[in-house]
Amino acid sequence: MSATEAGSATEPASRLLDDAELTDDARIWLVRHGETEWSASGQHTGSTDLPLTAAGEEQARAVSEVLGDLGDSYVVCSPLQRARRTADLAGLQLDEIDTELAEWDYGEYEGLTSAQIRESRPDWSIWNDGAPGGESPEQVAERADRVLRRVTPHLGRRTVVLVGHGHFSRALGARWLGLPITAGGALLLGTAAPCLLGAQYGVPAITHWNLPNPRG
Q: For this structure, is 11 an active site residue?
């Protein structure tokens, strides 16, 4: 799919999911990794493979308190260590490592804060402009759509858990609702603050968003 075909970026999730019939017991948990040095400082962290801080490890352990009893679950994780360590400390048993759950590719903006980027581009937004040498918003939307399509067969039978990153989890939330990728900018998300995607009457919905982590 090309960027010009991101009519997918405004289609409802039921279309994106190949017209799969969603039931009210569809559940997808989005788990952002715990704190790292760069998430604490506001630096954009895409492919840089940073470990969790001590505080991030405490947050990761506390994730299980928020998720509760998942029952029969299907857990998919980003390959980056901050996500894998979060899943491990949260007691999640991985079924799959998916490279498409990795964070937004920030290209030339890797390691920079938004304030640093806006010194030369005052109106810049990752949601509107993407990153030079990295991914465009359209590319991230398409990647989020592919992830959602792949987990569709498990919905209603198992609880899906996607362990990943901040911006990409926000993209998944927007695309689950069938909203343009830019809507992710309104879905603020803290470290290790789980979100629950669901459905009502066959319509994709957000059940919980940015649930507070007991360890801050």
A: no
